[in-house]
Design a protein that fits this description.
The structure is a homodimer of 331-residue chains. Chain A is of the alpha/beta class and 331 residues long. Chain A has 13 helices and 14 strands. Chain A has one domain: Ribokinase (UDP-N-acetylmuramoyl-L-alanine:D-glutamate ligase). In chain A, helix 12 crosses helix 13. Chains A and B meet through strand 4 and helix 4 of A and strand 4 and helix 4 of B.
């Protein structure tokens, strides 16, 4: 264990199973394009049977963020639950090999390690079908107090609220972080996830320090269809709010003012999986380095741009080098 | 089961674990660059610990060939042994989803499904470290007589001889194929594999109909360092011999004459894993379609060119479409 961590992320520990499909496939399989849908084991098996040949890559929203942070050179830790099975071993190997501290004890019996089937369409959009498996076994007991206390920022993914015990774990982690004077960040994860847990997420906004959301998520949170109104409202509740707008860039809302961030130039968009996760990684890296918020946003866009240029949601190149070459900050 | 199969391939059923490394890594881990080395479970675990974040894709030499054949539109079948575990399920899913007939009963207990760590260096070369796992449990009883009898060509990978019971299975498959008047093809797989089984491979050459080898393998087989001499010698023993020469293309040796095949134009070589496997797929597809040998070689080069343009050893696009667009043959 390190003396301190820049960021501890907590999330559903998932192995992604990626394949390319056309829109007709999504229709035939009755999948909601662009969304993350939770499926049970039976439906997961059914969809896997329908799926063409695939590629497996470790994923999980907050785990991707941790891997991104480590790739920038930050000290990152991760808490998430896998099963003691082959996919669990792969997940563990990949996150540790990325340089992330990860010591959550795996569950011994079924359910198996979580998997997320990622259907990438020709427009580079991704449609996610997640079987949570072992993730539902994440318990408050998995939150190592010592690690939370040593972490400058504890980052939670909204998806965790889909498991009642994992939501309890998040509440405990928030408590530990606040008690030790550290910051808490939350990602709203997905508009449908916001729908499922709106009341608690609204409540949480007044307790956390940093909120990450895309346009659809934050609109869903406040059930408004005017982004300007939502920004005014959330700006009074959460100290720092970052709203991603896809190809249009992002907005940073801090102390009543809004900073506009341009998207990074991307030669070819291949797969948008992980764009939000890596955006958060870049932004948090900027924060822990003490960079101005505009630079944080630009670093975030840089990381998001890298991840959508290839298949999979973990960096394919060292983000530290990418940042150095970008000239965004002088080091 | 289909009425007939164009090609049945038999091989080690393996899931590839791919990562990028530099040459210093190969040196540090004492790996023989470009070769396939067999490792035991302990060494496999050790190397996996050293390995960075990775991607999992179904592989296995003859399985890649079967997937390639199916991608061309041929009727392909595969025999190979996985364990009834998560990697085994992934392997089964991927080959069936590729359209290949695969019904080999998985083993129930340890060892686990085989894995091959693929270390790709910046020069796009691959260095393979294979833990054979469940593959050593392939037995003569796994060779379904009915399937061999229905297959125009039975294709064996030389790697199978690394397991004594799998070698027995190959001998039985050869016997079934010859009894029913079908053809047998053999791939020499790897120069080190040839070294391990030289005598039997030499003996086999007089029994089979088609031999696939690269320059290093065929030189090793006859322990000559003059390719011309080797070609004269092998041409008298095996009816059809195909020798791949990497970036220099390939040679087809048939009835005393040698046809030179140009390599396909490849925009960017990313990972040479599977080049030989897909070359064989293209060539065999040409054979079962009854195309002239020169066209068979060109189709083979086309398939090899596709596979080296991306990570992994299974086609990323429909080879049938690629062939149609190539204009090599008029259909």
């Amino acid at each position: 264990m390190a003396d301190f961590y820049d960021v501890l992320t907590i999330g559903n520990a998932i192995v992604d199973i990626l394949t390319h499909v056309d829109d007709a496939f999504l229709e035939k399989a009755q999948l909601t394009k662009g969304a993350m849908t939770l499926v049970d084991e039976e439906r997961s098996e059914y969809l896997y049977q329908l799926m063409g040949p695939a590629t497996e890559i470790s994923g999980g929203s907050a785990a991707n963020t941790a891997a991104g942070l480590a790739s920038f050179g930050a000290k990152a830790a991760y808490i998430g639950k896998v099963c003691d099975d082959q996919l669990g071993h792969i997940f563990r190997h990949d996150i540790k090999a990325a340089g992330v501290h990860f010591e959550t004890v795996p569950s011994k019996n079924k359910p198996a390690t979580a998997r997320c089937m990622v259907f990438v369409t020709p427009d580079s959009q991704r449609t996610l079908q997640t079987y949570l498996g072992a993730c539902v076994k994440l318990l408050p007991g998995d939150i190592v107090k010592n690690v939370v206390e040593k972490s400058k920022i504890t980052y939670l993914e909204g998806y965790l609220w889909d498991s009642p015990s994992a939501a309890d774990a998040c509440r405990l982690a928030t408590q530990y972080a606040k008690q030790s004077g550290n910051k808490v960040a939350l990602s709203l994860s997905d508009p449908y996830c916001v729908e499922r847990h709106r009341t608690e997420f609204q409540h949480l906004c007044s307790k956390i320090d940093i909120l990450f959301a895309n346009e659809a998520e934050i609109m869903s949170l406040w059930q408004h269809n005017n982004l300007k109104t939502v920004i005014e409202q959330i700006g009074k509740i959460t100290p720092l709010v970052i709203i991603t707008l896809g190809a249009a860039g992002s907005l940073v809302v801090y102390q009543g003012s809004v900073i506009t961030i341009k998207p990074a130039a991307v030669r070819q968009i291949v797969d948008t999986t992980g764009a939000g996760d890596l955006y958060a990684a870049g932004f948090l890296y900027g924060i822990v380095c003490g960079y101005p918020l505009k630079a944080c946003g630009e670093i975030a866009s840089l990381a998001a741009g890298e991840i959508i240029s290839h298949l999979g949601a973990r960096p394919a190149v060292k983000l530290a080098k990418l940042l150095k070459d970008s000239g965004i900050v002088k080091e």
